[in-house]
Amino acid sequence: MIDFPILSLLTFLPLVGVLFILLVRGKEERVALNARRVALYTTIFNFILSLYLLFNFDDKSAEFQFVEKAEWFGALGIQYHMGVDGISLFFVLLATFLTPICILSSWNSIKSRVKEYMIAFLILQTFMIGTFCALDAVLFYVFFEGVLIPMFIIIGVWGGSRRVYSAFKFFLYTLFGSVLMLIALLALYLEAGTSDIPTLMDTALEYNMQIWLFLAFFASFAVKMPMWPVHTWLPDAHVEAPTAGSVILAGVLLKMGGYGFLRFSLPMFPEATEYFAPMIMWLSVIAIIYTSLVALVQEDMKKLIAYSSVAHMGFVTLGIFSVTTQGIEGGIFQMLSHGIISAALFLCVGVVYDRLHTREISRYGGLVKNMPKYATVFMILMLGSVGLPGTSGFIGEFLALMGAFQVNTYVAVFATTGVVFGAAYMLVLYRRVIFGAQHNKDAAAMKDLNKIEYTCLVPLVLIVLWMGIAPSYVMDRVAPSVEKLITKYESRLKQSPAESIDIATNQIGTTGVSE
Amino acid sequence: MEILAVFLPLIGFLIAFLFGKSIGDKGAQIVTCGGIITAAIFSCILAVEVLFGGAEHSGDPRTVTLMTWFTSGALSIDWALRIDQLSVIMMCVVTIVSSCVHVYSVGYMSHDKNKARFMSYLSLFTFAMLMLVTSDNLVQLFFGWEGVGVASYLLIGFWNHKDSANAASIKAFLVNRVGDFGLALGIFAAFYVFGTVQLDGLFEQAEAKKEMMMSFFGFDIHAMTLICLLLFMGAMGKSAQLGLHTWLPDAMEGPTPVSALIHAATMVTAGVFLVARLSPMFEYAPDVMMFITVVGGLTAFVAATIGMTQFDIKRVIAYSTMSQLGYMFFALGVSAYGAAIFHLMTHAFFKALLFLGAGSVIHAMSDEQDMRKMGGIWKKIPATYTLMWIGSLALAGVPFFAGYYSKDMILEAAFADHSWFGNFAFWMGIAAALMTAFYSARLLFMTFHGKTRADKEVFDHAHESPPVMLVPLIILAFGAVFAGWAFYDMFVGHHQIWGDAIFVLPANDTVTAAHHVPYWVKKLPIVMGAAGLLLGWIAYNRIPAIPVMTAKLFKPLHNLFFNKWYFDELYTKTFVKPSFAFGRLFWKTDRNVVDGLGPDGVAKTSYGIGGLLGRFQSGYVFQYAFVMMLGVIALISWFYFKADIGLVETVKATVEVSN
Predict the structure, then answer these.
(1) Smallest Cβ distance to A402: which of B69, B191, B631?
(2) pLDDT (tens digit, 9 = 90+) per residue, A72-126?
(3) CB atoms < 10 A from the CB of B574, how many?
(4) B415 and B426 in contact (C-beta within 8 Å)?
(5) Smallest Cβ distance to B160: which of A149, A168, A435?
(6) Does B583 contact A401 at a Cβ distance shorter than 8 Å?
(7) Exposed e or buried b for every residue in B522-555, given b needs 16+ CB within 10 A?
(8) Is B592 on the interface with A (CB under 8 A)?
(9) ipTM for the whole complex
(10) pTM
(11) B623 touches chain A (CB under 8 A)
């Protein structure tokens, strides 16, 4: 397995696709079609390839697997180091799975600069997969930040009417965090003398250093997440992004923040995590309630779902920073589930947007009559988003809350109110779009899902149900890594200087008595 | 067989829902009805096995594990079917009533365009309900719990072109979610205290941990009280107990078979089932039991007062349901679990009968539901008329009908508890019994007797329902007549079949004590029932001026009852409107404060600088470079600063050394 560089292959295969697209010449229409095809085939092939990971993953092991190491900046000790464990495995799969769906969903809706659009998506995929596979902090940073560029272009070029404002807002927000993270990375490197992530995880840092580094990393991950109150870029970015842009943004990009917390913050700065966890849990609670209420009054479908994303991500941070088995596993599961559900919901919005070119909720109504298939798909996704048991949305939310309850009952009680608010805005949205009288003729004349839309949505719906009914397939693979993370975290907390002295003196004391 | 009994309805749902078009309406009806009737037969066979089978015929409870649902650390949850005395009884009630409703729906929905969808939802509901009653852990129970909620949501809003139906379905879902909020927290707390959510694990540890305290919301609270209180909150939502009841009357927007199945016979009794199922825990939470008794008593009373004043035939029955659920709850509160389940069963029969009968009336009257526009139709629909009488007599607790046995048992148990709350519930129940009989009579006389107030056209058109609707009614009527007499001994008599399914502390055994209450306690409910019926007959048949006069005389009271004690208005003002107001406020905050101070503010400030520099460059790359530069500057200054400190320290050290 070591000989076969599967992770690098996954990461850089899309770039091969880019090369092919660049080589395409001819009439514009011809180029567009070929670009679409190349992108689709590349990403589908990449997805199939990524299944190799899934089938060969050792689900008993908590170690990094499929590891690749190569010299990069030899003198500085910065390496090209890749690998996945239970935490990152499914994020890689999420990225390889959603990209072909994105490409397929833009098949007809993107008409201008198709070639460039496809190139942007392929590059984006490289960066996304790289982010989740990188085991060197510098390498991680390159991928993590690299994501910004294609995404910025996708929003800024193929977006809606206020795309430039939104693109810049997105860019500046994330960059603000990135700059701080870059500084922190350098400090970390200087302090520990390495940028190797597994090594850094075992390096004990001084308390003050931890606090500062934690805050700097937090700035970056919190924006990516996004957490309240640095979430305002998300609704704008979603609203203006083209459908596929929203899908990938909600589906994968938002997960990079949560992944960052698990890869850096918890293992490297355990004492700082301990210190800041209550604050972050409260921020999560605010996010859940605040953004749910905001979602309730939205008139724009995409904005509503964007705000709901912030609330759902609130459950993720809540779970992760409870630092309990249930909490972290719930957080991870919630990210995966949200990746599927919100991606599918944005596709659903895209379906009606393509037909009527408006996202205003009040322009629709009574769609169940002319689009019954659409109504069914939307219904299942809506229930998934609401967190109905039997869908994937339930497991993550439930476990995250259960984790939080063990640590802080105040937080758990307030956060659980989110299940009521969350149901409120989704049900109201569904009622206004799908049910009721058909008061708009053009909405009433819309056709039901076409073949492409059907192909995009049905797998997502099936996964939502599968992950709800038999989530152990995913959870069993995640569990060992989470277990290791928590064990290490707790042992590191015990070893913190003040306590370690106590233990030492105690031991001396007991030995003294026994003598 | 256990698996088939539970999953046949699911299969029916999947086939009818996914392939409804290809198999046609007929096909869908056959598949769903066939599935559910088979499930009912299997359930009955299972019931006989579990209740009377095994060695020495003492029963044969078992658990069938299907597969692991999910595992997370110490939390491990299976998909499993727990088949014991309590669950088989529930399975029988659910599947039998559901079969009747399925068959009835074939006739009732014959004019509807979406027959397959309707039948499939009914089957989906039945499946979820069966998962609920057979679950062997709290999380699967929660699955069934929310599953029936969704099915109810879908069915209430079945006529989704009607705004009122959509509003009602959302309201039902949300109010239930408020209850589920408590239920979920209860599950978290249970896991926190016991480290498991398996029922067996919980029950084993219950006694050992009965004194345990836990910290919750900054208070040290008796753990069992907290857990049970939170779980009971879920029960309050689902079973429409006072405070979380407002969704139930509105749920009558759904087609009538739905009201019969979900909002009378089965789903709303899930709360009763929950408390009975968890009796080994609730027994150690006496404060919660007291609370349950009081809530149950109040619900029985308040709902009955409202029921007396409503004009919509379905709403009258809905409030009656709520009132009867109140009875079941105060029975639970005084540890008379057997009596509660007994009433649950008899109620399922006669209330489903009443609802389906009302449906038959509505069907006959061209979809009219207002009793003020009915009257005098008994000759037109004699079969429905007779069946409605049977249902009403059972409800009013007239001797030898089913309701008589179970309701009397509950009242006697409440009295036998000899506690202040038991007494409170007893008198509330007695008052409600009077009112129950009264509104039952009112319903019958307003609908069937006197001169008709319907349009001539409607009246002439009135016709008896087809056999496909009447046969299920007759089956239910059979239950409404004989279920009490036949099962008295098994549920609350001398040969109880509960085994280990229900746990009662010896000190709380009110069911046994109930057999020894004073004579007047035993007879009072009958007197009340007779008096209520008589009053109803006088007021709505003999001297029609009385209701009008009374309403005028006690205007404030009548207004209070007629407007349902103003719960809806209160909730709209305190919860619904503020939620939207806060939503708008927060949204404004987002746009003005967060964005204003954050990105937009920063953007404005940097716009000046950027604009200046921007003349030299163009394109987005510049922006990136610019911020990068800022970063580099920050970095350099940081190093410089650090180096500076180092310098100062070196200087200090040098000075010290030189000194």
Answers:
(1) B191
(2) 776 777 888 888 988 999 999 999 999 999 999 888 888 888 888 888 899 999 9
(3) 10
(4) yes
(5) A435
(6) no
(7) eebbbebbbebbebbbebbeeeeeebeeeeeeee
(8) no
(9) 0.88
(10) 0.88
(11) yes
